[in-house]
Design brief:
alpha/beta, 6-stranded parallel sheet, 16 helices
Length: 421
């Protein structure tokens, strides 16, 4: 039995793959600690997993912080420059406290102290990556959260994207000064850039997403193993069977044709604006039923019986029963929609969402609608085109079948056990 720490930050889309891997490792007899934001202590504790708080805890400062970091092209800069790198000493201190006796540190790429601790303590370190955008392949360039007028630039070709990476390296150099200073204080050289070569381990690296989104690329780093998505289905007890839904929701689903599900995940809900009101109006214009997953927002006033508003429902239970899914494009939500075999409209807000939107659109199972154009008439028009596409549902069904055969969590844990051996 090994002692393993899994460290992660972010939304539920970031946390759930870590939980899936942690539960599988525990099932295999390992002692697992999940290190994450204090906000997740109760969630982790109810699963019987050991929890350790890891700073920074962004939600502790209030929802306005999430609103700032979900702000399009500037959101990533603000997250890194103003929140993550200034807290790297606290992050280092929190992780260092639990590493004695640990055999393996498995960390998301935002855990910037992990490479440093691997160098100073000798603990084996395995980083993991949840979406293609973070691997920056020049062969299959991602769509980065740039101003809308520049989204086309990476698609010009590998040479153009190499320029984009060079520019990103230069622009972001000052952001990670606190990490360079911490490494210096620990007697280490500055190290590689934490957005590029500095985030990869010399041993095992894990890509925890399906080849459906991006197959292996020739310029991925050595030692990178792709596993497929790692799903944690909380309300379904992490089983393939959907859990029982609330009686009111079940009655609504059975009362008519499958609804269009509108959701903003667990982060973009803080900047929902008129998303739900416009969504409800669009559904009425189409003559379609709708289910709004509000995530803490107030429901639009005077909703008709054809529109049901609910705070939260497990995606595994609800997406397969939708006609289509409209969402923000986080990789966790995108993975669940692909797994359910549902066509989708993606309205990206920040970070990886622009690239995920472009990829599902390229697959022929989705459409992309810019956040600035999210108005009832535009939504209705895009949804009408998607629902009338005779190829979208068969393509989505084929993708769902492929994902069902990937066993991402088991594959990831097999790789971790080989690394331990």
């Amino acid at each position: 039995m090994a002692r393993i720490v899994i460290a992660t930050y972010g939304s539920l889309g970031d946390l759930h793959p870590a939980i899936a891997v942690a539960l599988e490792l525990r099932q295999r007899g390992h002692d697992v600690i999940v290190a994450s934001s204090e906000n997740y202590r109760e969630k982790i504790g109810t699963l019987g997993l050991t929890f350790h708080a890891l700073r920074p805890d962004l939600l502790a400062e209030g929802g306005h912080v999430i609103a700032e970091i979900m702000d399009g092209p500037s959101g990533t800069r603000r997250l890194m420059q103003e929140r993550m790198f200034p807290a790297v000493r606290a992050m280092h201190e929190d992780l260092a406290a639990i590493l004695p006796g640990v055999d393996l540190l498995v960390a998301s790429e935002l855990v910037f102290a992990a490479p440093l601790l691997a160098a100073t303590t000798g603990v084996r370190w395995v980083p993991y990556f949840l979406a293609p955008v973070t691997l920056f392949s020049s062969v299959d360039p991602p769509v980065l959260p740039m101003p809308p007028g520049l989204h086309w630039l990476p698609r010009v070709g590998p040479r153009a994207f190499r320029f984009v990476k060079w520019a990103a390296r230069r622009v972001s150099h000052s952001w990670w000064r606190p990490l360079r200073e911490l490494r210096r204080d620990c007697g280490l050289p500055p190290g590689g850039h934490p957005f590029f070569e500095g985030k990869f381990s010399p041993g095992l690296n894990l890509a925890l997403f399906s080849p459906v989104l991006q197959p292996p690329q020739p310029d991925w780093p050595a030692g990178l193993q792709q596993t497929g998505f790692c799903f944690y289905d909380e309300a379904a007890g992490n089983s393939a069977a959907a859990a029982a839904l609330p009686a009111e929701v079940e009655a609504f689903l059975q009362a008519g044709p499958p609804p269009i599900v509108f959701t903003l995940g667990s982060a973009a809900v803080y900047v929902a604006g008129q998303f739900y009101a416009e969504s409800a109006r669009a559904a009425q214009q189409l003559g379609r039923r709708a289910l709004l997953l509000l995530g803490g927002n107030s429901p639009p006033p005077a909703l008709p019986p054809s529109v049901l508003a609910w705070d939260y429902l497990p995606y595994r239970a609800i997406f397969p029963r939708a006609a289509a899914v409209v969402h923000q494009g986080g990789v966790g939500t995108t993975a669940q929609a692909l797994r359910a075999g549902r066509p989708m409209v993606v309205v990206p807000f920040a970070h990886d969402q622009f690239d995920n939107a472009a990829r599902v659109t390229r697959l022929g199972v989705g459409r992309t609608l810019p956040r600035g154009r999210y108005r009832a008439a535009s939504i209705a028009s895009v949804l009408a085109g998607l629902l009338a596409d005779a190829e979208a549902i068969p393509k989505a069904s084929r993708i769902a079948a492929q994902i069902a055969g990937e066993s991402g969590t088991a594959t990831a844990c097999d790789a971790l056990e080989r690394e331990l051996a």
